[in-house]
Amino acid sequence: MDSLLLGILGLAMAAVVVVLMLGIGGFAKGGEFNAKHGNKMMRLRLLFQFIAVCLVVLYVYLRNQGG
């Protein structure tokens, strides 16, 4: 169970990094992409960060229950 949760947590953190890089790239380039998708990328990053933090809390909780 621990390895599955750690795998999902790793995927969630990778998703945060990917969306963050896309947002930074769009912001640096500016133009139409940033005007159209900049706010959406920020909201998506916040959602993925929330999910990743919840998974970290769940992992720590489950580890403490077993020991």
UniProtKB/TrEMBL annotation:
Pfam families: HIG_1_N. Residues 1-67 form the HIG1 domain. Keywords: Membrane, Transmembrane, Transmembrane helix. The keyword Transmembrane applies. The chain crosses the membrane at residues 6-25, 46-62. InterPro entries: Hypoxia_induced_domain. This is Twin transmembrane helix small protein.
